[in-house]
UniProtKB/TrEMBL annotation:
SUPFAM superfamilies: 6-phosphogluconate dehydrogenase C-terminal domain-like, NAD(P)-binding Rossmann-fold domains
Pfam families in alphabetical order: DUF1932, NAD_binding_2
Sequence ranges assigned to domain Phosphogluconate dehydrogenase NAD-binding putative C-terminal in this UniProt record: 195-265
Record-given protein name: Phosphogluconate dehydrogenase, NAD-binding, putative-like protein
Organism: Asticcacaulis excentricus (strain ATCC 15261 / DSM 4724 / KCTC 12464 / NCIMB 9791 / VKM B-1370 / CB 48)
Gene Ontology terms for molecular function: NADP binding; oxidoreductase activity
Catalytic site: K174
Residues of the 6-phosphogluconate dehydrogenase NADP-binding domain: 6-125
InterPro entries associated with the record: 6-PGluconate_DH-like_C_sf, 6PGD_dom2, 6PGDH_NADP-bd, NAD(P)-bd_dom_sf, Pgluconate_DH_NAD-bd_C
Amino acid sequence: MSVKTILFLGFGEVGQALAAALQVRADLTLKTFDLNLADASSAVARAAARLEIVRCRTAVEAAHGADLIISAVTAAQTISAAQSLTGGLKRGAIYLDLNSAAPGTKFEAALAIEGTGGRFIEASVMSPIYPQTIAAPILLSGRHARDVLPVLQGLGFTGAKFCSDSWGRASATKLCRSVMIKGLEALITESLLAARFHGVEDEVLASLNNLFPHPDWPGYARYMISRTLEHGTRRAEEMFEAVKTVEQAGLSALMARATAHRQAEMPAFASALREADLIRMLDAIRAQLTQEEAAQ
């Protein structure tokens, strides 16, 4: 199959990273639909203009003629994003669903796409999208995954790898990993904010380094906390999908649910991102906490 037109359904961090990598190819037409495009001053609209991506007014309009649709919305919008293309999807079009959603959620999205003649590929990005962008490791599942893999690799998705002929395996892999990775972010955030209050952050960091050696624990901790501040809302949605994944296995999703709540509350302290030093970042968050407590 030849891919000439690519639609980015959702144009946040992942969509922009992939578009920037593909934009250098003169043989491709790139377009996007994102609800935030309606606001010309939004970061999404500015990014689309900078990358010279065709901006569409509706999802159906955007779907017309697209050979490959890359869905990169928030986890909570996985199903509605797929359903939004009804009436516009080209028969045989590849629908690459990169969203961090539970196996059951992916299955419902797959039914929406396959029911209108598209080819649904469950895809899980297994690392941060930067710095590798289009070459990032991606697991592919679904009955069309084997056939679509060489098409994606030809476009530059060199980290793409076949996972399973069945939907669910790639997303389960991603979300079981997220319980650990996003959980670590939440644990480090909570641990060091409390440690800073008690004045024992140096001792805690030294102990962590003894157990889990790292050349720069303060720098690593700052990075992990910054992810919650910058992307906590999106991560919380992902972790609520992880809750479904864990509960499907017959377990109480205590850790996943707690991580979701911690991630959800951290973007309120995003102003602390301006602090390049771990201690100053912790102090900025704690100062805001103190102000909020005093106002109650």
